[in-house]
# Entry
Amino acid sequence: MILRQFTAMAVLGLSLATSAGAHDLQYTVGGGQASVISLFYVDNTPFSFESYEITREGEKLPFQVGRTDARGRIAFLPDGAATWQIKAVSEDGHGLEFKFSTDAAALLVGADKPVVDRYSRIAVGVAVILGMFGFLSLYIKRKRAT
Amino acid sequence: MHIPDGFISPQTYLPLYAVAGVAWVYGARSLRRQLDADALPTLAVMTALSFVLMMLALPLPGGATAHAAGIGLLAVSFGGWMGFMAISLVLMMQALLFGVGGVTALPINALALGLIGSFAAAGCWRLLRRYNESVALFLAGWFSIVLPAILIALVLGIQPNIAHDANGAPLFFPFDLSITLPAVVLPHLLVGVAEGVLTVLGYRYFTRLRAKLAR
# Structure
């Protein structure tokens, strides 16, 4: 009788211990091949502590969400070949969206790039504006002449 | 301040494209009536200045950044419609050629910065110039930044209510009005001071320059 009670108690104790074990968080620390994405403003101020999400193309649920670190960086460990969409946003409405791809070995193979680098943008933009107004001026003068 | 792509729901930007489209057509007609070949070089330089200012971020206390826009200077020099069209041109170029500010957000940016900003500045200038020119110019610049900032904060802040999934998770911009209003408007109260000073100094400089060239 005592033996039977002891066995029942032991089985119950073990089963409770097993289910409790499912809530006991474990961890490992190791190295890995991460893609590092840096976000920053035009003047190189880092986009620090702002929220982002990375979603595999074609899926609705994000693969990774979080906040950038103090230097505006995101460490991302993809799980295979895919195109990823990253969306970063700050509370004051700054942010960006772009795509990048990884291969079967989960290595970065390409990313959207700005068409023109940030310093050239300003020069090109000013030139385009002045050029457009130049043409407009010629148009008005020609119209006046006729 | 201008909003990038992916932050604004179609329920917001599609109707606003229609509103902005009407404003652009009316603005183009107004431009044709008012445009003077002699004023074009100044308009070109001020538009280019606005483009440069919008591309340069000013660091603010707390780590955020913002930028002046030259809206006040354009509006007090050329009026509301010219200011709107010049700022719209700058925003279109930034969105289409350089990916700064979104194509989907273009109507909101154009209506807020271009239309509201320009008409706020032009109205302020017309109302107050008879009392004190410098104060009128400063306030024109200040309102040309602060009013668009309020509008942009409102548009961003209502996105979680307008577009969300079945569980209530926002599909576009995730922060509501309680966050966007202070986050967007408070820094722009300071940026408005820079814009006000720029409007005073810029207007005086261009007025002197035009007087010299006219001699």
User: Anything to note?
Assistant: The helical segments of chain A are 2-21, 118-145. The longest helix of chain A spans residues 118-145. Strands of chain A lie at 35-38, 51-56, 64-67, 73-76, 82-89, 95-102, 108-111. The CA atoms of residues 88 and 96 of chain A lie 6 Å apart.
